[in-house]
Amino acid sequence: MKPNATASPPLLPEWAFVVQFRVETDLERNRMEGRVEHVVSGQATRFHSLEELVAFMARVLAVVRAPPPYGLPE
Known about the structure:
Layout: E1 17-21, E2 34-38, E3 44-47, H1 50-65
Antiparallel strand pairs: 1-2, 2-3
């Protein structure tokens, strides 16, 4: 099958997270409680707000985006 030039880039596992919400979560009231885990590294944390959830994901993705240290293979 010939790739489509307008197709979306692949969804990579390095960019995958599992997010679990606790029953206390009430999105209409901007209340979030839960746990998030990076699929590839296994890093995980609990969060109590959207800001905490996004901050964890940003920290993990910053490492994923970083080039490998000099002299090490990718």
